[in-house]
Amino acid sequence: MARWSLSGRSVQFLSTLKELPQARSNHTGSVPAVKESLYPRDNSTVRPFNEIPGLWKNSLANLYTFWRMDGFRNIHRIMVHNFNTFGPIYREKIGHYESVNIIRPEDAAILFKAEGHYPKRLRVEAWTSYRDYRNRKYGVLLKDGEDWKHNRIILNREVISPKVQGNFVPLLDEVGQDFVARVYKKIERSGKNEWTTDLSHELFKYALESVSVVLYGERLGLLLDYIDPDAQHFIDCITLMFKTTSPMLYLPPALLRCLGAKIWKDHIDAWDGIFNQADICIQNIYRQLRKAPEADGKYPGVLASLLMLDKLSIEDIKASITELMAGGVDTTSITLLWTLYELARHPDLQEEIRAEILAALVASKGDMVQMLKMVPLLKGALKETLRLHPVAVSLQRYITEDIVIQNYHIPAGVSLSPSLMTTLILYILYFTLFFIFGLFACVLSQSDISTAGSLRYGS
Ligand code: HEM
């Protein structure tokens, strides 16, 4: 049981970390030369790469087992199981996916020191295959090397620098207010003072509406009772794109394409729909710019800002915008869902966070940007939720030099995955915090939600 303390108050959340065993194998063997500084301090013998425990000798059998265990949905459980079986480092080969999984934060630190000048990540082959097939550019998520850095520096300025984030707040606040209004309307209409719904679906729509308004500067109208068929098609494309991506992490897309598999065709249709949406938005932006070239002082969204900045090609912009959108929706909606779940299980903490937000609202005199700087307990709850229920279960890097981890020699070129399921490594985009905060600030500051009691889950 791990104890987590916030502002002097302790909250107990379950953690399996301390129950996890140490590596059990005790092999010896010869290894190629590795930088001296990388050898373990206790001078124990470094073991060769092939002695790393794990499931990597029969990739097809592993793929079958993975499928039998419903691995696409249970990957987090499989990770914990493998960790319990093999210890803090294990090799894995499932189908054509191969990696060395590491668990401890100090091992992740060794990895990041050896990753070279630019991060070299596992390609999401399903996504690169679509771009190659349709002759489209890669965005930052898929780019490598100098090209990645060039694009990333420009995106950093337009997406995550504190200077631009203030622009997002009013847009996100509006979506948050609409979401809360929708909840009230649904409760009222039920006639029973409650609303039973698939919350994950509602939060998905909230997240997509939020990301879209920031990226495209336009509301999709997903929080309305009637959803425009084009907007519904866009949601369906995003859902289909994610659904068809997971199997292609383990089955080569090139093979599925040769076989004319449905999953490949669906994947292509899904991305086509997503890119079409970006095309329509770009056309609208150009039309507006032609009509009213002088800015009216209103923030036009990331896409329009990038177009006006004119530092990236339209194709580069379009590629990164679609990746920002693909990366920003389920990550945030699922994190929100888990946070609400944890708060429902901890009503006292819920009350403390609500009090913190109300105090921040008064102190900031309604200035949302200032207010979001005054809610450390809420920020802590989100981070703790990400630790307990990481929406991205692992990171991934190819190393550019030989290293030693847990006394095993790992040659350059190997792919390593620090698990986010079992370490304390946290990743969160600042932008994410802003828009998750925005919703909480709205929901938890409404007085009658508190009088209705805690958020309730289950029966
Ligand atoms: C809880 C929220 C989120 C989590 C847990 C998450 C997780 C991650 C992880 C693990 C990576 C890979 C980082 C690496 O390889 O070093 C990543 C990259 C990325 N994420 Fe997120 N993410 C979240 C929210 C978002 C949001 C809101 C957006 C966009 C609006 C976004 C867009 C991206 C993009 C574009 C990349 C690629 C960046 C690059 O390679 O330069 N993510 N995210």
TrEMBL record:
Q: Which cofactor does it need?
A: heme
Question: Which Gene3D superfamilies does the UniProt record give?
Answer: Cytochrome P450
GO-annotated cellular components: mitochondrial inner membrane
Catalysis performed (reactions): 6 reduced [adrenodoxin] + cholesterol + 3 O2 + 6 H(+) = 4-methylpentanal + pregnenolone + 6 oxidized [adrenodoxin] + 4 H2O
Transmembrane helix in keyword set? yes
Instruction: Kindly state which keywords UniProt assigns to this record, in alphabetical order.
Output: Cholesterol metabolism, Heme, Iron, Lipid metabolism, Membrane, Metal-binding, Mitochondrion, Mitochondrion inner membrane, Monooxygenase, Oxidoreductase, Steroid metabolism, Steroidogenesis, Sterol metabolism, Transit peptide, Transmembrane, Transmembrane helix
Which InterPro entries does the record match to this protein? CYP11_CYP27_families (IPR050479), Cyt_P450 (IPR001128), Cyt_P450_E_grp-I (IPR002401), Cyt_P450_sf (IPR036396)
Q: Does the keyword Metal-binding apply?
A: yes
Q: Which Pfam families match?
A: p450
Membrane-spanning segments: 424-444
Q: Give the GO molecular function terms.
A: cholesterol monooxygenase (side-chain-cleaving) activity; heme binding; iron ion binding
Look up the domain of life of the source: Eukaryota
Q: In which pathway does it act?
A: Lipid metabolism; C21-steroid hormone metabolism
Name any Gene Ontology BP term: C21-steroid hormone biosynthetic process
Q: What is its EC number?
A: 1.14.15.6
Topological category with respect to the lipid bilayer: Peripheral membrane protein
Q: Tell me its family.
A: Belongs to the cytochrome P450 family.
Q: What's this chain's function? A: A cytochrome P450 monooxygenase that catalyzes the side-chain hydroxylation and cleavage of cholesterol to pregnenolone, the precursor of most steroid hormones. Catalyzes three sequential oxidation reactions of cholesterol, namely the hydroxylation at C22 followed with the hydroxylation at C20 to yield 20R,22R-hydroxycholesterol that is further cleaved between C20 and C22 to yield the C21-steroid pregnenolone and 4-methylpentanal. Mechanistically, uses molecular oxygen inserting one oxygen atom into a substrate and reducing the second into a water molecule.
Please identify the protein, giving its name as recorded: Cholesterol side-chain cleavage enzyme, mitochondrial
Organism classification, top ranks? Eukaryota, Metazoa, Chordata, Craniata, Vertebrata
